[in-house]
Amino acid sequence: MDIRFSFVLDTDVPTGPGYYGPYINGYITGDLNIFIIEKLFFEEPYVNLAELGWKLGEW
């Protein structure tokens, strides 16, 4: 079975007085797409990709 994961990282890093520092703690957001046999199976535009990577590593 052909399974493909596509990650697109957000390039906007928040700064300024409202910045609370999630990027320091590994909170990296982006788009996640999972394709099965070249058809889009799952799409999520705001995923914490760092946490997803850790969980996939445990799996």
User: N-to-C SSE series?
Assistant: EEEH
The N- to C-terminal Cα distance equals: 18 Å
* Residue windows where pLDDT falls under 50 for at least 5 positions: none
Helical amount: 10-25%
Rg of Cα set: 14 Å
Cα shape: elongated
User: What is the arithmetic mean of pLDDT?
Assistant: 79
- How large a portion of the residues is in β-strands, by DSSP E? 35-45%
Q: How many individual β-strands?
A: 3
Number of helices: 1
- Sketch the major β-sheet: 3 strands, antiparallel
Number of domains: 1
Task: Output the strand order for the largest sheet.
Answer: 1-2-3
Classification by helices and strands:
alpha+beta
A few lines on this structure:
It is built from 1 helix and 3 strands.
Give an account of the 3D structure.
The chain contains 1 helix and 3 strands. With 59 residues, the chain is an alpha+beta fold. It has a 3-stranded antiparallel sheet with strand order 1-2-3. The relative contact order is 0.26.
Characteristics:
single chain, 59 residues, alpha+beta, 3-stranded antiparallel β-sheet
